[in-house]
Each structure stands twice: as structure tokens, then as C-alpha cells.
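User: Hey, quick favor. My workstation is busy. Could you predict this chain's structure for me?
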Amino acid sequence: MVYRSPSKPPTLWPPDGTTEPQNTLIKDVGATLWGMYYNVEAWSAAFELYKYSKAPEGRRAHGDVARKWKFIAAGECVMQVAYMSERLRWINSEKINACPLVAPHVDHGALRLARNLFNSYFPHIDKMRVPEAHTGAVDTNFRDHAPPGGWAFSRVTDEDRFEVTYEGEILHLDITDETLERLTRVTETFFRAFAAAGAALDG
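Assistant: No problem, here it is.
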């Protein structure tokens, strides 16, 4: 599959004469949209490293380093999805409602759809982030995180599924073209929620 970048987000920038705190709030919301865009771009870059680490030329040229790259890339993929989760939560906070130049133009149906799609695709990403962001703490207390009768671990399966254990659960993220397409779908739906707001501010 050829990677397709998400469409660029609508520009949210305060019109001339906008005073604080609205000026900062509008810029913050706009920065969140671009942050989502770059999360997908970063995920795609990590995915390219993951694929190279598995390819014969990668393994032949770099040996065991390529195997380590596979785990580095998979971990970065987890973190980028977790950052998207934070942005989706943040944008649904009181900051939109506190921004009267943006709030009336937000398509809440599209916003809700983006959030629901994300939650259906990545229901455990916030939990999965913890062993990636705090590997030392989790590894030190590995017995607390092993599933019943098993061991704590992180691994990549032959089906390109990155699995980690946390609080007795086995959590996973697929490092695949399908996951990248899902991230793009969520992001473009999210952008659609702010299209009218971008046009209103530009007008």
C-alpha cells in the first residue's frame, strides 16, 4: 500500500483585533489540529523503520541492530497514537466552549465521530502507553503486570502485532498499513469538524 498523508488541517488563526485570551485559545486549537497531522506523519515514519528492520536488506546490512529497530519503531508507534488520544481529549474540554469565535462553527457530529472511531480502533492505547513511557518502573515490578499464569513481556508477532503486558492484561497495537489508514481516517474526520471554523475566521 502506498502511504497517503492526511489532508492538511483547516487553518485556525485569530483575526486582526482579537484580544487575549481568545487569541491564545484559537492558536492552541489550531496547534492541536496540526499536532494530529504530525502524529500521523511520525507514525508513518516509524512504520517505515519497522518495515526496513524486517526486510532482508535491513537484516543483512545491520544484523541484530535491525531487530532492535523493530522494537524501537513499534514503541514509537504506540506513543504517537497515545499522543493523538491526548489531543482528542483536550479538544473536547472546556477550551472549545471558552472560545466563542470557534465554538459556534464546530461540527460536533464530526468531532464525536472522530472520537468514537479512535476509541473503537484503539480502546487500550492509554494503558499501552504506560509500559512504553515507564519501561523501567514496569520491568522492575514485572510480577504485578504478568497475566495469570504467565510472564510479563513485550514482543512483535509474525502478524506484525506489537504486544505488551500491563496490570495482568496483554495489550496490542498492529503495526500495519490498516492501522495507518485508520489513523488517517480519524484525523481527517477530526479536521472536518473544524472546517467551518477555519472558513469563518478567514472570512
